Amino acid sequence: MTTFEEVLRGPMQEALDRALALPDHAWKATLVRPLTAALDAAEATRFAELERLVTAVQTVAQHATLLAANGYVDADTLDVFAAAHNACLVARGLVYPPQRAGAPHRANAGVLVAACERPTLREVERDSFDSSVWGAQASAQGAAENVEAPTDELDLPVPPKPLVALEEGKGTPISEESFYADVVASCMDRAAMLARHRTERPLEFRGEVEERLLQCVDAIASIGGPCVRLVLDAWKRSLESPSPWSTWAAVFTLACLSGGDTLDAMAHGLTALPPTATDHARAAAEALLVAPHPERNGVCRTLLVSPHPVVRAVGGLVLGRQNVLGVDEIRAFLLDPNSPVAAAAAEVVDVLSAEDAARLVPLLGKCLGHPAPAVVWAAARTMLRAGHQEPYFELRDGGPRAARLQPFGAEIFVLAGDVSDRAALAACLARTPPSAATLSALARFGHAGTWSYLLRQLANEELADAAEAALVMLFGERVAPSLRQDAGAWRKAIEAMRLDSSIRYRSGEPWTAERVAEACASGALDRIALERQLDELAVRAGIHAPANGAAWGKELDRALAGLVHAARERDHAAMRGTWWQPRRAV
Prior knowledge:
Blueprint (H helix, E strand, L loop, with lengths): L2 H18 L5 H20 L4 H20 L5 H17 L39 H13 L19 E2 L9 E2 H25 L5 H16 L5 H12 L5 H12 L5 H10 L7 H13 L5 H8 L5 H13 L5 H8 L4 H10 L5 H14 L5 H13 L4 H7 L5 H4 L3 H8 L5 H9 L5 H10 L5 H7 L6 H12 L11 H11 L7 E2 L2 E2 L2 H9 L5 H15 L11 H9 L1 H8 L16
Antiparallel strand pairs: 1-2, 3-4
Helix pairs in contact: 1-2, 1-4, 2-3, 3-4, 6-7, 6-8, 6-9, 8-9, 8-10, 9-10, 9-11, 11-13, 11-15, 12-13, 13-15, 14-15, 15-17, 16-17, 20-22, 20-27, 22-24, 23-24, 23-25, 26-27, 26-29
């Protein structure tokens, strides 16, 4: 059976069938004709010109992505073209990871010194990772009971592995392997919890959280021997109820261990994720970016050609956030029919120089109509941060992509709207049930007239804390802490402030960039709240922080320390208490 018959014929034929089922339109022929020609040529030549065929299929898949953004190709059909695109990478034989031959990494003799403050590459004596062995272990173990012993061999007893107990006479003894597996599983669970705390807790606690994370890595590294395999085993078990925090913990741990095979193990684990797991791709990339492995970027180059979209997205995010991807590479990823890859590409455009980013703005504008919400928001956010208001105008004026932008309407109005958008913001909020995110956006919009809506949410048990935080953000600490969920106390305090509906407020005072920067540098915000306010500084004042909220604690502290001075220098009378911002023509 040829490679074409084994790998490409099925996905190509399914893509052609889906294209034929699309409504009649001039666009239909742009998908049907090249696919038909490619299939006919492949059948006739028995796949003699693989590269030309693969290029043709990938080009059609990229065109399907653009037609999906126009609304002609539906999401399910785009998924079929994505499968054909991925099959092309399999056909090329560029499946990652390649196996690295070599002896296990052996550290110099000595005691493993605990890491402190920031991640350190851990050099320990351990087993090399071999994906073929690791992948075969589970199936071999499960099948062992059904295999009869050969009759021509001696039936000798197998000596049992020694059992161990932590304390003599207490607990059931277990094998040493099981003991180490339990230790690794426990450390991985704790590391996943701590990774979540890095995002959801105020930044002032990040140093303590990161110190505990490093302790988990050190505990796993001290096992040596099978530690890499045990991390993969624990990661695989966590996929039964997948959490991006488990992926962050596994990738971070593996990338803290020396030896190129640990990154092979990481890539192998990523291929077990669902192909649409955009949140896992982001978590893995952020873990890699704060890990100390010296071969990270070289391995990420090979990830870019993986048939698995999550693996490609990880490579694109890691390299893109370091600004080592070219404009043409990012353009190709924006046209990838797999949403994790396209979302990653839209996100990293933000890192490019203004001149290079401008070359991709027209394509980002098309991505505003993409069927995947993650791609839409990544494109809209990047465009707004770069000073291009097309997402705002599209939403405000009810353009053809407004429906795709609607779920992010509140954030878009916070970043680019003004006092005249009060009704449009209210309409956005009316279409979705209230949530902590929408209450935060309403407070950051800064209009005093939203007080009654926020007070009503104090009666909602699930949103009372979020409503309290939103009221403090908008009006300041005008009410004693013990009364901050008392609507009557807030009403009295707000009425006494004699607010002006034409002024934009933050913490009870007219909005300024300096006030936002002070909040960012205070340590009181969690990562999500921090990044929302960093977006405000970028869009409203043109101030871009040199690091994002995923950075390691000390690096992030240094990046935020300079924000207040930069904002003080940028503030001027035209900005104070207004929704002013520099605008660019679309």
